[in-house]
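Fig. S4 source data, part A: sequence.
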Amino acid sequence: MKQIRFFIEDTTFQLRQKNKLRLWITDTIENNNKQLLNLNYIFTSDQFLLDINRDFLHHDTYTDIITFDQSSDSKAIEADIYISIDRIKENAANLQVRLIDELHRVMIHGVLHLLGYKDKSESQKREMRKKEDHYLALRNI
């Protein structure tokens, strides 16, 4: 049974339009020839995500997103995506974009990683940004 679930940890953030987001994310996954099994988004505070970054990745830095791929099949998506709402708010302000647009960009960024896209090199970052823009344009939200 495919499902996308949303959780809140250590923040008062409330996600809106969950069903439309589920449809958008599911379409993105299926249009890339992957099967959605289970995808959990966990929206957190900076401190909560920093603790995860330290404990699991041994990085002592704030980040906006951490994606844990738990898929055992390369054609399936099963993962947890942690997103810091504090980072999203700061990034949106710094980039002078709407909070909801930055949130959706980061949400689809995590999915793109699960689909195999990387962002380590400059060319990979450019390709990732193009894909983010493409899928953001397909939102019906």
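Fig. S4 source data, part B ends here. The chain has one domain: 3-137.
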